[in-house]
Write a structure and sequence with these properties.
The protein is mainly α. It is about 55% helix and about 5% strand. It is built from 14 helices and three strands. Strands 1-2-3 form a three-stranded antiparallel beta sheet. Helix 6 runs antiparallel to helix 8 and helix 11 packs across helix 14. The chain is globular. The termini are far apart.
């Protein structure tokens, strides 16, 4: 009897058609294998969820995504008001996701490889005048429910220049009241020590003694800032609180957490602080990132010169 030839080729593995399972797998990879922060994972997921939603509207399966489709997606994001800096981050997220998909054999090729990131914005960081900062902080009635918590958060944003993620992740064990420092973990999981100003220290001690205990529930963690349910405050909720408090203070300005960080750096520079010190306080890996604040200071100096110098 003649034996037939064995077919040793394995059946082709079908490529995924929808984004959701791939997104979940990739986020798990970032968390478990790469050990990246929850803030970074959340940022990547936001980008990929936006892409998934756009693909549904376009009726595009994952297998048909190419560089042209990704370019159209980025154009749509730009049209929706995304800044050049945010588009750069979005492009990076797409590149790392699709490179991972291709390397794991989940796609036949990497469609994001040819993408070019937009040039960075050259706009100066927004700041808020010191008088408005004082008005914002002084407007909060600390005798009312959550007044101490909200006042303390705003004091820390401005006195220590914390990032939003750093404030949300701050825990009781990271505080050192003897040395007036707080230990924070920033981008790239880098830890730094940041001074806590006198006013912020007073606010922290008041909040921790007189309000935080009332927010603690059975399963509350050691996060410094708690919600009414006893959990850690989310970044979105903190953004809302900052905007609400600014509105209540009657400030006619778009106030958000990073604005207070920018103002912290700018006011330090205006007060004569060394740029290298400001770099350390902000946790910038590269001095060029900090140097943008010198342009803010230079703009102010030119305005003063023009106003007061006889030949300005």
């Amino acid at each position: 009897m003649e034996l037939g030839t064995w077919n040793l080729e394995l059946p082709a593995r079908p490529f995924p058609t929808t984004m959701e399972p791939a997104i979940d797998s990739f986020i798990m990879y970032l968390a478990v294998e790469r050990g990246l922060s929850t803030a970074y994972q959340s940022s990547v997921r936001q980008t990929l969820d936006a892409l998934a939603e756009w693909m549904k509207k376009q009726e595009l399966p994952l297998s048909e995504i190419g560089v042209d489709e990704l370019t159209r997606f980025l154009s749509a994001r730009k049209d929706s008001g995304l800044s050049a800096a945010s588009l750069r981050i979005t492009t990076v997220h797409l590149k790392v996701f699709f490179r991972w998909m291709a390397m794991r054999g989940k796609l036949p090729m990497d469609p994001a490889e040819p993408l070019i990131s937009p040039r960075p914005d050259k706009s100066l960081p927004e700041t808020i005048h010191f008088g408005d900062v004082a008005k914002l902080l002084d407007s909060i009635d600390r005798s009312k429910f959550l007044g101490r918590r909200d006042h303390t958060m705003l004091e820390l944003f401005y006195s220590s220049g914390l990032r939003l993620s750093e404030l949300c992740q701050a825990r009781l064990e990271t505080l050192d009241f003897e040395e007036n420092f707080i230990r924070v973990t920033g981008k790239g999981n880098k830890t730094r020590i940041v001074p806590v100003g006198g006013k912020a220290k007073e606010a922290l001690e008041d909040y921790l003694a007189n309000e935080r205990p009332s927010l603690v529930k059975k399963k509350t963690s050691s996060h410094i800032f708690l919600s009414v349910r006893g959990g850690a405050l989310s970044p979105d909720r903190v953004r809302e609180i900052v905007k609400e408090r600014a509105k209540m203070a009657g400030i006619d300005h778009n106030v958000y957490p990073h604005l207070l960080r920018h103002s912290f750096a700018t006011h330090l520079l205006e007060g004569g602080a060394d740029l290298r010190v400001i770099q350390e306080l902000l946790g910038h890996a590269d001095i060029s990132t900090t140097q943008i604040y010198t342009h803010v200071e230079g703009k102010r100096l030119k305005a003063v010169h023009k106003k007061f110098h006889p030949r300005g």
